[in-house]
Structures are given as C-alpha cells and as structure tokens.
Amino acid sequence: MAQLTTKKRIMDVAEQLFATRGVSGTSIRNITSRAKVNLAAVHYHFGSKESVLEAVVSRRLVPLTAERMALLDEYERQSKGGAVELPKIIEALVGPALRLSRSSEKGGEHFMRLLGRLVMEPDVKIQRLLTDHFQLSLEKFKPQLEKALPHLKPVDFFWRVHFLVGAMVHTMADSERIQIVSDGVCNPDDTEGNIKRLVSFIAAGMEADT
Fold this sequence. Notes:
This protein is an all-alpha fold. It has a single domain (57-207), classed as Tetracycline Repressor, domain 2 (Orthogonal Bundle). The chain contains ten helices and no strands. The protein has helices at 2-21, 28-35, 39-45, 49-79, 86-101, 108-120, 124-148, 154-173, 176-181, 191-207. The longest helix has 31 residues, at 49-79. The termini are far apart.
C-alpha cells in the first residue's frame, strides 16, 4: 500500500507541475521536492521524467479510451448491425472526454491544463504519445464514421476528424474563457448541455458538402 501511495503521490504532483510549468520546465528534483520523496523512489517506480509523463497521461487516457469504446459498443448493439447515427458516434467520442474535463474526482482540472500544454508542445515524443492514445480510439470509431459519412473523400474525412479533435480539445482545455467572453451567459459546468452543443456543431461540420 505504501508503494502505491508513493507512486500515486509522485504522479499527482508531476501532473500539477507539468500542467503549470510545462514538461521542459519541470525537473525530477521539482517533483521529488514537492512530493516529499527521494530521487530513488522516482527511479524505482518510473525510471525517468519521460516515463513519469507517460504514466500521468496514460492513467487518464486509458480509462477514457475504454469508456469511449464501451459507449460505441452500446450504440452498435442498439443499431442491430446497421450504421450508428453520426451524432451518437460523435457523442461516444467527445462525451466521455468532456465529462473527464469537468470531473474533480478524476483530476480533470489539472489534466486538462496539462493536455492543453501538451497539444502545443513541439516535442516529437510527446506528440507521439498523444497520437498513439488517440489512434486507439480512431481505429475503433473510423469504420462507423465512414459508414455515416460515405460522401467524404479520404482527404476530407481525415481533415474533418482533425477539426473534430481540435474543437473537442479546445473545449476541454480552455472552457473557462467562454464564461468570461459571454459575460456569464455560457456555463462551462453545464457538462451535458455542452456535450449536446458540441455534438451538434461537429456533426453539422462533418456532414457538410465538400
């Protein structure tokens, strides 16, 4: 239990530091000092700062991917072998992500701040890490998206998936800004309402004529 507690404390602290200072601005010593552990503990559990980052990202994104896939599986079951409606496909993809972003129990606030930083990081390894995680979801969702969007050429299909991801990540990572610019009209804590709005927006763009 002590080892699990130490490992979790290291990841919790690293997530907060990576989110506020960036990966390059955070050292192993910063993490050990804040987590009140020695350097040997980090090396024992992770081995390197890059491995700490991978563990931090994976503990949020692996369950997220599983939730997305389970939701799409349910919609496929409901469709009884037919094509799943596009809004349901998109909801299965973006809904779990937005729910994570607003969940304090799952560390959503710190992780979303971290995700926003990582998306803009020029580091090739970091971009590969994010791409690998999303690729798992895309492999599952791609056949259903293609069924729902048969009119799209491959080049348009992949650009629209790219735009989908951009809208989703921005909404997750920078949701507080809309409350400011709308003078409080828009509430980022209306998670289910905002999922519906995002799904409607993305579906319209995905279905548009080329």
